[in-house]
Amino acid sequence: MTLRKRLLWQRLAAIALAASLTFSADALVRKAPRQKTPGTPNPAKRLSLRDEVAQLVVVPFTGQALPKRARHKRREVERDVASLVKKQHVGGLILVNVFQGHLVQRADPVEAATVINKLQRLAKIPLIVGADLERGASMRFNDATIFPQAMAFAAAGSTDAVKFEGEITAQEARAIGVQWVFAPVADVNSNPDNPIINIRSFSEDPKQVSEYVDAFIKGAQSNPKFTVLTTAKHFPGHGDTATDTHLNMATISADRQHLDQVELVPFESAIANGVDSIMTAHLSVPALGTGDLPATLSPEILTKLLRDDLKFRGIVVTDALDMGGVAKGYGPGDAAVRAIAAGADVLLMPTDPIAAIDAVVAAVKSGQISKERLDDSVNRILAAKARVGLNAQRYVNVKAIPTLVNLPQSNARAQSIADSAVTLVKNDSKLLPIPPNTQSCFAILREGPNSQQGQAMQPEIQHRAPGRPVLLLSPAITEAEMDSAISGAGTCAQWYVAAFVSVAGYRGSVSLGGNYPALMEKLIASGKPVLLVSMGNPYLLRSFPNVAAYLTTFSTVPPSEVSAVKALWGEIPIRGHLPVTIPNLARFGEGIDVNATVAARLQ
Asked: Residue 350 pLDDT more than 80?
């Protein structure tokens, strides 16, 4: 939506509000303007002070049941969330995954929708429900269309593909009951050592990032039947850091000129293209006057830069307040007050929601936060709820989910995108495509012993190379186990090694973990040529520059596993090009084009 259309929408909403004589809970949402206009009634004034503040709080829920043997624990969790909705009147929910080691327990779409409906029934004012859907709904839900990570789209070179992802993400999200998509990532990944952005970013080039960010926004906003709020993150830019803000506060040391030319460019473009919200980053930017404050709590960032300089009029949402970048330095009440005072509209995942509400209420009563400042944020939230239609329908038609989510044609397009992203960076020994009738050996380096990584790749390899060894390994492998695995593989003319290196919060690194580096060096030292396939982090070549060949998918999802295998056997053309620089090894835009050499096998 253009700025002109937004302002028109605001004026129409204000007129409707002035004409309204009733203010039920749903009417508050229905009549709220995008931004309060002088002289128009203020819907926030129809709420108590505490309910106003509660509207700015978004709390986590899993959307899934625990096993029957722990059903009492599930009820306890549900009562906690239900209490925050029913008694505290929080404004929204964010769906989060449950982690068990390296296994991610994603929610079932039907079950999650059922839970959302239940919580909506308890809500005084309709809840807005958000989720991190950076690579589509499958990032948080099982049985949804599986798209690769953002950088794969730039490697494939198709903004149309990102627009399609935006369309399908909006459709599947709304079908399940999610109206607020915390995507796209607008960070410019200019630091190869960035442990948390990496392939979540489209590129190291701000212009390219802008193009793909804008395409996602346009796609997500393209179908009025599935209206969602989009979110550019993490402002003012998290790409040039080497710290995971889940663990600690990061710092961007660049000067203002660099920030204007790099970090801020995609955000400015997103604002111009109608992004609905912007998520803050827990990092300090000395050049912007933050001092020791993270941007999330800085008036210099959220008000002076974002509101005054960049003219953003949408919702400012904090990154999760339970992350170390804020939580280690500020209590839940202090962080909440500072964030609202700085210019944030929504408090995402405070460590103690009730303490956060209490603190902001007290700050308003004391005059630390003005009532007008609070009303501005509340009106933005109510207007956003109206825009996504929560005033008309807060519930999900659970029976319609199979007709809208995980459709075969959507998955086929997603697989095609993953195919197009595969990029060949090095092929010194002509290991690709795999020479016929050779004694090739294969190893899959998973990130954990129980990881599901490689489960799509292993059978694909075995189908094409029956009888050849395919080692499925764990980072805890010992030297004795390495020697046994290598010797047990028999005679190998060359090794094809697929290494999974994903990006995850609280890990603090995107390097190959455990004893894998020793294994790689052992294979390279054997004198047998090694082709390394990076399933994820494209910079992995820096750790093993002596491999004979290097292929990268920029993604860890199962479709990318299939794409890598098809590329190895020459069943698809390789046309991907690097959207980043691999220092001293490969330049931005490089990629070796290879034609398909054989007909694709039936899958």
From this structure: yes
